[in-house]
Amino acid sequence: MNPTIELLKSHRSIRKFKDQPLPDGLLETLISAGQCAATSNQVQAYTVIRVTNTENRETLAELAGGQPWIKAASEFLVFCADMKRATEAAERAGADVVRGMTEQLLVASIDAALMAQNVAVAAESEKLGICYIGGLRNNPEQVSELLRLPEHVYPVFGMCIGYPDHDPQVKPRLPVETILKQDYYDDSQDQAQVDAFDDTMHQYYLERTGGKKDSNWSEELKPLFTDKLRPHMKEFLEKRGFGVK
Amino acid sequence: MNPTIELLKSHRSIRKFKDQPLPDGLLETLISAGQCAATSNQVQAYTVIRVTNTENRETLAELAGGQPWIKAASEFLVFCADMKRATEAAERAGADVVRGMTEQLLVASIDAALMAQNVAVAAESEKLGICYIGGLRNNPEQVSELLRLPEHVYPVFGMCIGYPDHDPQVKPRLPVETILKQDYYDDSQDQAQVDAFDDTMHQYYLERTGGKKDSNWSEELKPLFTDKLRPHMKEFLEKRGFGVK
């Protein structure tokens, strides 16, 4: 394994950070490395908001469902899907533009994700730790208002960045053979593999919590499929001009 | 700049590949590095289809709008957003699951993108070249049928992987200051910066084509905003059980 692949395989979310700022210019280097990720037809449909205002950090920590590391991290970034800039550029160039298409929602969300993952890898290559914050989608309206996001821009997720002050284990993943299929989607082995992975995760939780957390993968997934998990997203996105048609 | 950041900054899409297979086990290593990317609540909402069947490769090259490198690449992967596996696992664990929520569409699409970007970086760290193929969304129904994708699984994009047989330039990106904003979305400088970037891209196109391509960023964006760009995506996704509510 080369050092880059070793780095990728050592990722874990960091939620405790040292009180140590990033050296001057490093954040810009990370963002610039992020921008080098592939982008659909070079549209670069993203904007990153770097939140330095302490009060806003506190508010975001609350809006994300109580995540104090948003305040404690050296940097907190909000990755936004941004179709505004490109649409307006095309419009100024004379295009009779159409807004609100679902394809544009996908392009912008995926562009933002590819870019963010490069930022994450770049940060980790500099011994920084990161944590994605999907919880911003708990209250996307309030987040958008706080960051003064205009129409055709929405907050996809946040990211805490800083020097790690704890050393959590790498979390297990499903076996490669479960998620990699040859030529066709064949899930005849999935259930047995998921059962085995439930055992893996059960062991992981027991070890990590000194026997306190008696759970597994399937159990932990249950809350993700209730109708309480961000049921507002469809209406929110449509209001922002995403996925209307 | 450390070697990983240098690697990230050297990315360019590769569309000409040597007739040279990947060493045994490397693809699995790349996928496994991909799986180490962050995943929303560990849901791992993705499946990758490795297409080895020559006839299917040809069909996919056509379905993607005529992209022969899909056939010529050593490997061609289709990254699918997959909510089926996790939903069924939660259901077997006793959850009264809800399907079709827009939040689930986002989670699965973003999970697939973060994972794919790690695969891309891992591949490039092994001197391989890659090219994302968003064109699979030109004909997502036919792609899904060909790969026998079930409900709650959809093809987000493809990726060609192989040893590069050309050496294209790195494509310019918008200035960091255009896409990185402090505390608030302030686009008062965007138009001037986009104008300058149009000049950068104009020069880039002229140089790359020996003076033949007289265009710029804004001009090239125009086709992305017509109502002909994948207007079927909303209906397609809903039919697949994504983003219904």
A few lines on this structure:
The structure is a homodimer of 245-residue chains. By secondary structure, chain A is an alpha+beta fold. Chain A is 43% helix and 13% strand.
Give the name of the CATH architecture of the largest domain in chain A.
Answer: 3-Layer(aba) Sandwich
Main structural class of chain A = alpha+beta
Oligomer: homodimer
**CA-to-CA gap between the ends of chain A?**
45 Å
Tally of alpha and pi helices of chain A: 11
Percent of residues of chain A in beta strands?
5-15%
Strand order of the largest sheet of chain A: 1-2-4-3
Number of strands of chain A: 5
Family (chains A, B): Belongs to the flavin oxidoreductase frp family.
GO molecular function, one term (chains A, B): oxidoreductase activity
Keywords (chains A, B): Flavoprotein, FMN, NADP, Oxidoreductase
Protein name (chains A, B): Nitroreductase
Describe the structure.
2 copies of one chain form a homodimer. Chain A is an alpha+beta fold. Chain A has helices spanning 3-9, 26-35, 54-63, 69-72, 84-92, 102-125, 140-146, 176-179, 190-208, 217-221, 233-239, and strands at 46-50, 75-82, 129-133, 153-162, 180-182. Chain A folds into 2 domains: 3-170 and 230-239, NADH Oxidase; 171-214. Chain A contains 11 helices and 5 strands. Chain A is globular and about 60 Å long. Chain A starts with a helix and ends in a 6-residue tail after the last helix. Chains A and B meet through helix 1, helix 2, strand 1, helix 5 and helix 6 of A and helix 1, helix 2, strand 1, helix 5 and helix 6 of B.
